[in-house]
Records
---
Amino acid sequence: MIEVEDLSHLKEAIVILEGLKVRASNTVGERYGFKKDKSLLSVFTCKEMDKIVDKIQKNKDFSIETDAYFFEIQAKRFVSFHFNPKKGLLIVNDLTEEKKLDEAKLDFVMAVSHELFTPLSASKANVFLLKDLEKDSEKLQILEKIERSLDKMETIIRQSKVLAMVQLGLYELKMESVSVKEILEKIFEDLRRKIESKKIKLKFLLEVDELETDRFVFYTILKNLISNAVKYSYPKSEVEVIVSKEKMTVKDQGIGIKEEERERIFERFYRGAEALKMAPGSGLGLSIVKHLCNMIGYKLEVKSRWLLGSEFTVRFR
Ligand SMILES: Nc1ncnc2c1ncn2[C@@H]1O[C@H](COP(=O)(O)OP(=O)(O)O)[C@@H](O)[C@H]1O
Ligand SMILES: [Mg+2]
C-alpha cells in the first residue's frame, strides 16, 4: 500500500481514492482540500467534472489538463489530473505558474509577429519595385535572393502567429461539413510548383467525400504533412494520401527520420540534420500540426524508417 506521508516532499497533490471519496492525501493534497472522507465533488469543480466522475466510477484511467476551482483555497487553478485506477491514485499537478509564463511568452510572440508585418510588407513592395527597374542580371539575382529571404521571414512570422493563437486558445473551432476533394485540390495547387519540379507522383485515395471538421485546421494539418512528404522525398518518388472516415495518412518514400530525431520533430524550430541540407524550412510545420491535432482532438502517429520513407497518420477518433 502507498504511504502518503512518504510523498509529502512532492510538488504534486497525491490523493488515494475509494470510489469518489478521499482516503488519504499528501500535504500538498490537503492544502488543496483533499481531506480524508471528503467527496471529490466537494473539493473541486471543473468543466470536465462529469467525465472525471464517470471515469473514476468505471475504474478507467484518464489524464486531463483543465481549469479547476478548489473550494478550500477559493481559487481557480490550471491543473493536470492523472488517474491510475489500479492504485486508486489521483495525481493533481498545479500548472498555473507554468501556464502564466507560457502565456507571457506567447503574448510576446503575437505582438512581435504583428509589429513585423508592416515593415516586412514595405520591404517586399520595395524589392518588387527595384526588380522592375533593374536591368542588370547579376543585381536581379541578388534581388531575387532578398525576395526569397523576405518570403521565408513572412512564413515564419505567419506560422508563429498561428501557433501562438492556437496555444493561447484564441482559435475557435468551427465544425462543418468539408469537401475533402476541394481541400486536396487547393493543397495540390499550393504545392504544384514543388511537386512538378521534383516530378513527384502524388496518389490520392479518397474513401470519403465529406468530413465533419474545421476547414482551416483540416487544411493546415494536411498541407503541412503533404508539403513535408514532397519536400523530403527523392525526385520521381511517390507520395500517397489516403483519407477515410476514421483517419488520414500521408506516406512517402523519402529520406525518413532517424530514431533519435523522432521525439524532436514536433518541437518549435527543430529541423532534422539531413532535412536542413535537403530543403529550406522553418521547423514550425509539425509543431503547428501537433497543436492543431490536440486542439481538435485528433491523434497523430508517425512511422518512419531512415532513408526509406515516412508515414504520418491522423486519427479523427
Ligand atoms: N515526411 C518527412 N520525411 C522526413 N523527415 C520529415 C518528414 N516530415 C518531417 N520531417 C522531419 O521533421 C522536421 C520538422 O518538420 P517541420 O516542423 O515540418 O519543419 P520543416 O519542414 O520546416 O523542416 C524536418 O526538418 C524533418 O527533419
Ligand atoms: Mg515542414
---
Amino acid sequence: MSGAPVVVVGAGPVGLTAALLLARRGLDVLIVEKHAEPYPLPRAVHLDDEVFRVLQAAGVAGEVLERSRPFAGLRLLDGVHRVLAEFRRRPEAGINGWPQGSFVHQPDLEEVLAEAAASTPGVTVTRGVEVTGLRQDDDGVSVVVRDGGGERSVRAAAVLGCDGAGSTVRKLIGSSMRELGPADRWLVLDVRSPAPLPVWPGAHQVCDSRRPATFMPVTGDRYRWECRMVPGETVAEATTPVRLAALLAPVDPHAVEIVRAVEYTFRAQVADRWRAGRVFLAGDAAHLSPPFVGQGMGLGLRDVHQLAWKLAAVLTGEAGDDLLDSYQAEREPHARVLIGVALLLGRLMTRGGRAGDVLRRGVLAVVRRVPAAARLATDSRTPPLERGPQVQRSGRAGRRLAGTLVPQPDVIVDGRRCRFDDVLDQVLDGADGAVLALAGPDDLTLRPVGRDRPLLRVHDGDGVLTRWLEGASASGARIRPDRIVRAAVPRRRG
Ligand SMILES: Cc1cc2nc3c(=O)[nH]c(=O)nc-3n(C[C@H](O)[C@H](O)[C@H](O)COP(=O)(O)OP(=O)(O)OC[C@H]3O[C@@H](n4cnc5c(N)ncnc54)[C@H](O)[C@@H]3O)c2cc1C
C-alpha cells in the first residue's frame, strides 16, 4: 500500500461518511471541500432504517437519532386534503434495529458527521480547496487542487468523487449522466413555526394532478412543503399570498416563518461509469433520484458503505483489484430500481389529470384494505443486490438470503446485550466477511472468514436471527462487512 491517503472530494453527507468508514478500516483520508463553510440550508429530510445502519457503521447513529424524529408513515391525500390512504411505519426499532423511517434536518446530520470527522484520527478535512484535475499512474493518483495560494498537486492512493450533482470528478474521468426519466421543477418551501403545527408526524402526499404537493414536519420547529411548479411559473408567482395560503392550508402562512422558498429541478439520472482505475464516484455524483421515496442521500450512503470495505481490502493487499469491479456492478442496478420506484410513485400519485384523480381514489381504497398490499407500501426494505461474484444466489437458501441485509436484533454476548452489527464489527476486525451459524436453540456462532480466531458465541435473545435462517432453510450465512449476505449455507436434510 502506498503511504498516500485516500482523497475524498466533497464534504457533503456522502463524503464525510466515506471518510469515517475508511478511517475505521485503518486508512488515512484527506477530505477536500471547495466551500469554506458547510452548506447551511436543508435538503434531504428522510432516512430509512437500512441507511441508519450505515451511520451506525460510521459511529454516528446515536447522535443522529437524538437529532431526528421517527417517521409515522405516509398519508396520501386528495386535492382538499381528505385522507385517501395511510401507510404506517413503526416508530420503534424494526428488523434493522432502528426506526423504519426518520426525519432529519440535513445540516444537523452534516454537523454530526463533520464533528466526528474532525475528531477521528487519520481524517484531515480541508475546506476552501477545489479539485480541478486528476492524473493517474501505476502507484495512485495526483490530484490537482486550487485554493487561495494557487494550484498544487496532492498524492492519493485512490480518489472518491463525492462532489455532488455537478461533479468535477465525474467530468474528469469522462463519465456522463444518463437520463432515466423527465426532469421536474418543484417549489421547495422550508418553514419554522414557534408553536407546534397540528400535523400528523409523517409524510403527506397531495395526489392532485393539478397541484401535486408534499408536506411533513421535519424536526423541532422545522416543516417542509414541496409542490410541482407549472411550466413557465416563477418562484414569485408560486408564492403569492393566495397561493401560499392554499399550499399551507389549514396552516396560516402569517403564523409561521418562511425560511426559504426556492425552485429545485428534481432529476432521475445515473452515471454511465462509476470507476476509472483508482478513481470512484459515489452519492449524487453517481446518481440523482426524484424525492418521492426520499432515497437520494440514502443511495449515496449505501454506495460508500460497500466501497469503503472493498477499497480498504484492495489497498491493504487483502483482495485483488477485481473486487472493485463489483462496486458499480452491484450498486448501479440497486440505484436504478429505487430511482425507478420514485419515478413510478411520482407518476402514480400525481399524474393523469382528473381521470387519474378518480382512478387513484378507487385503487387506493382497495390497497388500504388488502393487508399484503398495505405491507408492501409500509415496508422499508429495499431490493436485494443482484447475483455476482460477491452475491452467490444458488439453491433455495441462497435465493432467499443472498444479496439481502442480515437483520439487526439485539443479541447477548458474554452476558451483555448489544446490537448485532456492533458484534459483527468486533468479529470482522479487518476480515472481509464473517460466518453466522446456528448452534442450538436460539444460540449462534460467529467467526471471521480467513482469520484464525476463536468462534464467538451469540445468544439470539428474541430468536430473530434463528427464525430468519430457519425460514430460508439455511443453517448459516456468510455476511460481508456491509451487512449484505454473500452466500447462504443450506440446512442438511435428515
Ligand atoms: C429539496 C431536496 C430534498 C431532498 N430530499 C431527500 C430526502 O428526503 N432523502 C434523501 O435521501 N435525499 C434527499 N435529497 C437528496 C440529498 O440532499 C442529496 O442526495 C445529498 O445531499 C447528496 O449528498 P452528496 O454528499 O452526494 O452531495 P452534496 O451534498 O451535494 O455534497 C457535495 C460536496 O462536494 C463539494 N464539491 C463539489 N465540487 C467540488 C470540487 N471540485 N472540489 C471540492 N469540493 C467539491 C460541494 O461543495 C459539496 O459540499 C433531497 C435533495 C433536495 C434538493
